[in-house]
Design brief:
- Belongs to the MurB family.
- Pathway: Cell wall biogenesis; peptidoglycan biosynthesis.
- The active site is at residues 177, 227, 297.
- Residues 34-198 form the FAD-binding PCMH-type domain.
- GO terms for molecular function: FAD binding; UDP-N-acetylmuramate dehydrogenase activity.
- This protein has 306 residues and is α+β, with helices and mostly antiparallel strands.
- The chain has three domains: 5-85, Uridine Diphospho-n-acetylenolpyruvylglucosamine Reductase, domain 2 (2-Layer Sandwich); 93-202, Uridine Diphospho-n-acetylenolpyruvylglucosamine Reductase, domain 3 (2-Layer Sandwich), CATH 3.30.465.10; 220-301, Uridine Diphospho-n-acetylenolpyruvylglucosamine Reductase, domain 1 (Alpha-Beta Complex), CATH 3.90.78.
- It has helices spanning 5-15, 47-60, 108-117, 133-138, 181-184, 200-217, 237-243, 272-290, and strands at 20-25, 37-42, 64-66, 73-75, 80-85, 93-96, 99-103, 120-121, 142-143, 146-147, 152-158, 164-168, 187-194, 196-197, 224-227, 250-251, 254-256, 263-266, 299-301.
- A five-stranded antiparallel sheet has the order 6-7-13-11-12.
- The radius of gyration is 20 Å and the shape is globular.
- The relative contact order is 0.14.
């Protein structure tokens, strides 16, 4: 890409030079280890910086993408134009009695561990979810019978216009693996969770059990985007894929996991095109065999290679 020095200088003025990278490979920042480059990869350190970046993008008509921590995401091989924002440095976690307040860049796993330290129960389900707090709100993340909407009380967001808002949890329309955050163009900066007092040993025992179940069943030894598909009503996605004889199916370096059919893993330097092609092949095969439409849980963003 040809660097627009005026845009670069304005970004660097907001966040400092060390927080702006040009033509940055996004495969370094996604769990799948896929994707082309970002024109400008920006890592702000304060809420005010995020607000100013949004306002700059609007004023200069520069495309703007929020990456999250790249755990439930596929970036296409052509990369992403304009500004890619990663909020990983907004990772503070604070507790106040039964409330836990976490920055959107904090890992939800770390929030659950902080809750454990304070003998607070309610976030045990999140101990194996690899995403950020912002990503967890974006998709109302959940596992093992729990989900974000069970414990979220409020969120601080930046709007498309660069306005700072504090919203109650019910204003986010949290439902199974979705919220109104993408439709409204909100950027989550902070989340507040209300938890219950519990016993440390009991909370830890449950977290240890859930961690063991996750590690024994999921293919964590390979890069992946996590669970690819939402659970279809009345079915399990992994079981449908397994019963379609698709475990081990491979396109290029992407493979339907032999360990858990609900996962697609990058076993041999896959391209995003190969990974996405395999997702579509799985959807087509399951639809033909069982008449069930598998809906993606993973987001796909960016541009194809020209």
């Amino acid at each position: 890409m040809a660097v627009n020095h005026e845009i670069y200088d304005k970004l660097a003025k907001i966040v400092s030079v060390e927080n702006v990278m040009v033509d940055e490979p996004l495969k370094k920042h996604t769990y799948t280890q896929l994707g082309g480059n970002a024109d400008y990869y920006v890592t702000p350190e304060t809420y005010e910086q995020v607000r100013q970046i949004v306002q700059l993008a609007n004023k200069e008509s520069v495309p703007f993408t929020l990456l999250g921590n790249g755990s439930n995401l596929i970036v296409k091989d052509g990369g992403i134009r304009g500004i890619v924002l990663n909020l990983q440095k907004l990772d503070a976690i604070k507790t106040d009695e039964n409330l836990v307040v976490a920055g959107s860049g904090a890992r939800i796993i770390d929030v659950s561990r902080e809750a454990l330290k304070e003998h607070l129960s309610g976030l045990e389900f999140a101990c194996g979810i690899p995403g950020s707090v912002g990503g967890a709100l974006y998709m109302n993340a959940g596992a093992y019978g729990g989900e974000v909407k069970d414990v979220l009380t409020s969120a601080v967001v930046v709007t498309r216009d660069g306005e700072l808002l504090t919203l109650a949890a019910d204003e986010l329309d949290l439902a199974y693996r979705k919220s109104n955050i993408p439709d409204n163009g909100y950027i989550v900066l902070e989340a507040e969770f209300s938890l219950k007092n519990g016993k440390y040993d009991e909370i830890k025992a449950l977290m240890d059990d859930l961690t063991h179940r996750r590690e024994s069943k999921q293919p964590l030894e390979y890069p992946s985007c996590g669970s690819v598909f939402k659970r279809p009503p009345g079915y399990f996605a992994g079981k449908l894929i397994q019963d379609s004889d698709l475990q081990g199916k491979q396109i290029g370096g992407a493979q339907v996991s032999l360990k858990h059919a609900g996962f697609i893993v990058n076993i041999d330097d896959a391209t995003a095109e190969e990974y996405i092609s395999l997702i579509r092949f799985v959807q087509k095969t399951v639809k033909e065999k069982f008449g069930v439409k598998l809906e993606r849980e993973v987001r796909i963003i960016g541009e194809d290679l020209e």
